Fold this protein.
Amino acid sequence: MHIQPRLIRLRDAPAYLGMDRNRFNREVRPALTEIRIGRQGVAFDRLEMDAWVDHYMRCNGRPAQNRGDEVWDAIEAPGCGRGDLAYRQSRPRPPHSRKHWNE
């Protein structure tokens, strides 16, 4: 039986999402809740990261097959407006989740 960890450490989070550290820090990290582990460790909830990916794919993905006459790019997915991610990035954070960009 293989058990996936619920928390993903900061050093492993970019690889979990298949991106480099700079892109993770710029695009993903502001939208996630940071979870302190011990005195210096930072981790992120795997399920919250998965939800970020689902949202990203819904707003930026492309269908695998041609869907006939329908112009796919003309249809905006619900919740993918300009303000959607801005809301997630600007939401209040719990006091224990201070940003530590140098880790």
